[in-house]
Every structure is written in C-alpha cells, then in structure tokens.
Structure to design on (310 residues):
C-alpha cells in the first residue's frame, strides 16, 4: 500500500452525505438558507458595531471579532459542502485539504481564546465596575484581540504540521470537509505518539479556556447575587447569559469531536455534529446577541428608520 502524501497527490474524495442520497437536496436547501442568514447576521453586527458610537465599547469590539470569525469559519467549509451536496464535484486537492484543515483549526482555536477574553470583559464589567474603563483600555482590548488571533494560528500550525508529517493511505474521507479526526483515520502507521501530542494541544486550547470561563462566571454570579437592584441583576444575567449560551454550544460540540479517542470516533455521528457547529452555531451567535440585546436592537431600528426616510 502506497503512502498517499508522499507517493501521489491527486487529492481526496469527500464522501459527505452520500450515504443518505435522499437527504442531500433537503440538506442543500437547509444549509444554503442558514449560510445566507449567517452572512447577513454577522455582517450586520460588524456594521452596527462600527456605525453607532454607543456600541464602541469592549463588549461590541470583541463581538465584532466573533462575528468576523464566524463568517470566516463557516465560509471555510460550507461552500465546499454545497458543491458536494449538489453532486458537481466531491473531490478536493491535497493542498486544498491541508489549507482547509489549517484554516478550520486556526479559526476554531482563535474562537476558543476569544470567548475567554469576552468572559474576562464580563467579569471586569460586573465585578469591577468602578475600574472597568481603566482595566479594559482600548490598547489592552486590541492587544487581547491580536493575542487571540496569533495564539489560534500558532496552535493550528502546530497541529497541522503534526498531521501532514504522517504517511496517509487512501484518498476517501468519510466527511464533508477535511476535519482532523477523519484525516487521522487515514494514517498508515500507529498514530499513538502523534495523537498524544495533539491531545495535549487540544486540552490546552479547549479545556483550559473552558475552565477559565467557568471560574470567571463563578465570580460573576457571586457579584450579581450581591446586587440589591433587581433591574441590575436582570441586566447582568441577560448580558452574561448570552455569552454563556454561545460558550456552551461551541465548547460542547468542539469537545465531543476533538477530545474523544480516534478509535472511538464515529464518522457518521461526527458529520452531523460538524454540521451543527459549522452551519447552525454561526447563525445562532448573532440571533442570541441581537434578540437579547436592547442596544443592538435599538441601533438596528434606527438604521432602518433612516433608510425608510431616504
């Protein structure tokens, strides 16, 4: 048996949802609608955060970064999936597959760190309100955002290098994009050592940030329970609740996929879990933050009224 990535590089065949041909048309329509809404919703948040001075705060600064991340994350996989479902082309080149893997890991890792930064912002707002503007200085916010992006891409570069160094056998990926667990299943040799290194990297980028977020929310809940004003409590829980819901959706699906041993990873289940966090979660983020946020809704209505009067 020849090594795929050292002997020939024709590319991979993405099997996608070919096991369920009766679902492909329905999935195509469903995914196309959700992808369009994702583009619209996240672009709207970015634009609103730029044009309204009331939204020039650390919270919306990081939220616009999250929206941009979701735009890039879903665009890195969904167009390929739509082509696959339409039956036009189910292949992807070796270089394209590695690039997709790298971008997917980089954006996912960046979001892991960014959600921690957003939790820290909420902690500063609730637990240190008098020092909030001093703590969350614009220069610090910019430095934290850069750290998120750089850290995410370094983590991705490390894991992608480990994966591409392994000899691969075969060219059929039982998935709709080049996801890491499926890629590892094509390895021709024992991947125990590589898996161990990658597992440590995944723990650092998934478990550690999740633990930090939980700790920050323990302090936030303690601080909110001390607030005597019911209106203040409701506002704090509403703001933090949106972020906590996003965190639960993102980390829940990511941990299911990336923290289980490769030998127990189910490709069939993995495809539907991946469908959730690549298609559904990116549209939930703008819905959660806009429908539960009066400032964003107020800005949106103001812009719509201006458009109608023109």
């Amino acid at each position: 048996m020849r090594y795929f990535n050292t002997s020939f590089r024709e590319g991979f065949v993405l099997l996608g949802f070919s096991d369920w041909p009766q679902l492909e048309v329905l999935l195509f329509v469903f995914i196309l609608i959700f992808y369009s809404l994702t583009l619209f919703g996240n672009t709207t948040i970015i634009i609103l955060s730029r044009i309204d001075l009331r939204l020039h705060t650390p919270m919306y600064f990081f939220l616009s970064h999250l929206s941009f991340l979701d735009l890039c994350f879903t665009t890195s996989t969904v167009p390929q999936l739509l082509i696959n479902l339409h039956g036009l082309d189910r292949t992807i080149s070796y270089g394209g597959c590695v690039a997709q893997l790298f971008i997917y890991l980089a954006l996912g890792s960046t979001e892991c760190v960014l959600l921690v930064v957003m939790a820290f912002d909420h902690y500063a707002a609730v637990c240190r309100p008098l020092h909030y503007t001093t703590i969350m200085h614009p220069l610090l916010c910019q430095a934290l955002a850069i750290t998120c992006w750089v850290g995410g891409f370094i983590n991705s570069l490390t894991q992608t290098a480990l994966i591409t160094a392994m000899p691969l056998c075969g060219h059929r990926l039982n998935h709709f994009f080049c996801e890491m667990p499926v890629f590892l299943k094509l390895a021709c040799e024992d991947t125990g050592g590589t898996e161990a290194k990658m597992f440590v990297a995944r723990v650092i980028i998934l478990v550690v940030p999740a633990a930090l977020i939980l700790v920050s929310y323990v302090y936030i809940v303690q601080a909110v329970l001390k607030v005597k004003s019911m209106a203040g409590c409701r506002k704090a829980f509403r703001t933090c609740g949106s972020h906590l819901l996003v965190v639960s959706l993102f980390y829940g699906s990511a941990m299911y996929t990336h923290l289980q041993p490769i030998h127990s990873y189910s490709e069939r289940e993995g495809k539907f879990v991946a469908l959730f966090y690549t298609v559904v979660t990116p549209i939930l983020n703008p819905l959660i933050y806009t429908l539960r946020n009066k400032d964003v809704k107020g800005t949106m209505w103001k812009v719509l009224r201006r458009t109608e009067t023109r």
About this structure: Residues 94-127 form the longest helix (34 residues). The first strand starts at residue 12 and ends at 14. The chain has twelve helices and three strands.
